[in-house]
């Protein structure tokens, strides 16, 4: 009886997981194949698969050129890459210093970083707006990079500090004995050992910045901001345009263009993500 109840429980859990998988995956699959339909087919039979002989690959070309997704895609790549690189660089150095060196203010600085995780982004938008305007960085990619970097540093310090605390101090001492200074021990020994944590931070920050809308909308809505707008802003504009023109096939193509880089990054690095969260955050 106990074995039968166990088998029944496993089957119920498996059925529930399959239902959840279908619930999550099918909407994206529907958007993907709807992006290859003509507009009239989207409204005529919304759930039917597209006909193979009339696949509308031109929807992607129109989204890329007419909706300016090419320019928005370049802005997203530039802003996201620069922001993630700065977050990893500054976050790793701050986390290493706070976890390895004892200072009376060390814990206070560490908790100050963690306090940044608890502040809603909406509360910071007004002072950030005035600061960027005073620096002449509104409606620019550099302004977005600085905002995203500052917003991502608390999470990076929290994750990476746990990794550096978990590393044996004997490795650092061996590096010093071999002739490395503080900087050499960090760059050559300690930082490579924290690679799972770096990958974890990079994935989370890449996904968060790539799809971020609020800051991008607030800081690139002025005159001249079109040259710095990212894909989420372009997708929102395309959504408004599609509703007026009934061009939902092009809108679906834009959604797929925005989604594909996130899926590729996650599929390529998912093993490192699970390992990083388990080894770093829990030990931290």
From TrEMBL:
Membrane-traversing stretches? 12-33, 72-96, 108-130, 142-164, 185-210, 248-269
Name a single GO biological process. Answer: transmembrane transport
The cellular component terms of Gene Ontology attached to this UniProt record, alphabetical and capped at eight, are: plasma membrane
Q: Which Pfam families match?
A: BPD_transp_1
Instruction: Identify the InterPro entries for this entry.
Output: MetI-like, MetI-like_sf
For membrane topology, the record states: Multi-pass membrane protein
Q: Does the keyword Cell membrane apply?
A: yes
Q: Is Lipoprotein included in the keywords of this UniProt record?
A: no
Query: What are the entry keywords?
Result: Cell membrane, Membrane, Transmembrane, Transmembrane helix, Transport
Subcellular localization is given as: Cell membrane
Gene3D superfamilies, alphabetized: MetI-like
Query: Residue limits of the ABC transmembrane type-1 domain?
Result: 73-269
Family membership noted in the UniProt record:
Belongs to the binding-protein-dependent transport system permease family.
- Enumerate the PANTHER family for this protein: ABC TRANSPORTER PERMEASE PROTEIN MG189-RELATED-RELATED, SN-GLYCEROL-3-PHOSPHATE TRANSPORT SYSTEM PERMEASE PROTEIN UGPE
Q: What is this protein called?
A: sn-glycerol-3-phosphate transport system permease protein UgpE
Give the species: Termitidicoccus mucosus
């Amino acid at each position: 009886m106990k074995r039968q109840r166990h088998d029944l429980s496993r089957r119920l859990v498996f059925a529930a997981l399959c239902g959840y998988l279908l619930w999550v995956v099918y909407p994206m699959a529907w958007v993907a194949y709807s992006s290859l339909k003509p507009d009239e087919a989207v409204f005529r039979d919304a759930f039917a698969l597209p006909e193979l002989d009339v696949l509308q690959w031109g929807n992607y070309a129109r989204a890329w050129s007419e909706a300016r997704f090419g320019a928005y895609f370049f802005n997203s790549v530039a802003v996201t890459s620069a922001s993630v690189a700065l977050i990893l660089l500054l976050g790793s150095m701050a986390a290493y210093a706070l976890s390895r060196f004892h200072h009376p203010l060390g814990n206070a600085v560490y908790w100050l970083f963690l306090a940044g995780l608890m502040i809603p982004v909406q509360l910071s938008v007004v002072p950030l707006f005035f600061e960027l305007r005073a620096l002449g960085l509104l409606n620019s990619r550099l302004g977005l990079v600085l905002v995203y970097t500052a917003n991502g540093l608390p999470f990076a310090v929290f994750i990476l500090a746990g990794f550096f605390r978990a590393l044996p101090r004997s490795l650092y001492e061996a590096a010093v004995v071999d002739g490395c200074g503080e900087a050499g021990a960090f760059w050559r020994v300690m930082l490579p050992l924290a690679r799972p944590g770096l990958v974890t931070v990079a994935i989370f920050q890449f996904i968060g910045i790539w799809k971020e809308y609020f800051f991008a909308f607030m800081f690139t809505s002025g005159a001249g901001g079109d040259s710095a707008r990212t894909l989420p802003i372009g997708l929102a504009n395309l959504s408004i345009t599609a509703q007026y023109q009934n061009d939902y096939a092009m809108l679906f193509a834009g959604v797929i263009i925005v989604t594909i880089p996130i899926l590729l990054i996650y599929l390529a690095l998912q093993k490192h993500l699970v390992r990083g969260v388990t080894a770093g955050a829990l030990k931290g």
